[in-house]
Amino acid sequence: MAHEEQVIKPLFAKGPSLGIRLLVFAVLSAVLMVVDARFETLKPLRSQMGLVLTPFYWLADVPVRVWDGATQQISSRSELMAENEKLKAEALLLQRRLQKLAALTEQNVRLRELLNSAALVDEEVLVAELIGVDPNPYTHRILIDKGEKDGVFLGQPVLDARGLMGQVVEIMPYTSRVLLLTDNTHSIPVQVNRNGLRAIAVGTGNPERLELRHVADTADIKEGDLLVSSGMGQRFPAGYPVATVKEVIHDSGQPFAIVRAVPTAALNRSRYLLLVFSDRRTPEERANDSAEAQEAADREAEQARNGEPAADAPAADTPAADAPAQESN
Questions:
Q1: Res 115: pLDDT
Q2: CA-CA-CA-CA torsion sign (103, 108, 111, 117)
């Protein structure tokens, strides 16, 4: 029995080999490059192809641009943080210098500069950061990151960008505790910046309020007056803002008015503070030095009243005194 051979025909016709195709495309590419370089026949086609492929170019460049942006943000984060801290410190120092502007203006009007006031001298300061708050609601104390190792001393004035905050009451090697102005055990001598009226501002336990004690009912003080440190007691430097008068209550039956004020410093919000190194002497040492200086000034004034000649005065008068004696001889 004869078997017929069955021939299976392929479904798809077999084309040229891969090598031939590569050669054809290579020749075609070379021809296109030569035509494009020598002639302008393909210029319109290239322009249209560029327009069609532009979105694909943009999409292909998106990952690169995203990567570059992320890298730049990550690398510059530390630089931005360092610059931010530096600018904060510089702004705090500049605002601190501006605090004395109102007080110095009034002093110039009243010719206070003739007294050679120490308020005109720029004090040394140290920037500190608040790191803790006393949890006791009846005491207003904070903890800062500067201590004995940084030169902090007891009674040192502390202020923020707006005004006085308080004074150092406890020193540790690397930290210190500050008693705020509004603590009910704290008081500070102040004066009205407008007319120089002196008073004592005491804390009330309320972080938003101070009171002036023993202000005469007829005293020239009104709402909106700026209270600055007077320098009395030689604890706080003179001329720094303390509070703004908020309310003045007059009672005809009482000898003293009720005066309430709002602290200028942001006691509940400030994080960066300034420690003022105006004078490290104790109040007793400053009082003794002042007494000695006053005694020396009194002695000089007594000598001037008695007409005692200066050490160099006789030398200038000697020739004039000898002239008559020569003529008589």
A1: 39
A2: positive
Do 265 and 166 contact (CB within 8 A), yes or no?
A: no
Residue 116 predicted with pLDDT over 60: no
User: Hey, what are 259's tokens?
Assistant: 């005066």
Q: What is the DSSP letter of 221?
A: -
CATH of domain 125-276: 2.40.10.340
Cβ 205 vs Cβ 184: under 8 Å: yes
Q: How is 11-24 classified by DSSP, letter by letter?
A: SS-----HHHHHHH
What is the pLDDT at residue 183? 95
Q: What is the dihedral of CA 94, 96, 98, 102, to 10 degrees?
A: 180
Instruction: Round to whole Å and give the CA distance between 20 and 15.
Output: 10
Q: What mean pLDDT comes out for the span 183-203?
A: 94
Q: How far apart are CA 304 and CA 294, in angstroms?
A: 15
Angle of CA points 261, 262, 266, to nearest 5°? 155
Which stretch of DSSP H or E encloses residue 63? Answer: helix 43-98
Residue 328 tokens read as: 């008589």
Tokens describing residue 84: 């931010």
CB neighbour list of residue 135: distance below 8 Å, 6 or more residues apart:
none
Which pLDDT tens digit goes with each residue over 268-296?
888 888 898 865 566 567 667 777 878 88
CA pair distance 94, 307, nearest whole angstrom:
51
Domain ranges of the chain: 18-120, 125-276
Which whole number is the average pLDDT over 41-50? 71
Q: What angle do CA 164, 168, 173 make, to 5 degrees?
A: 140
Closest CA to 160 of 136, 134, 129: 129
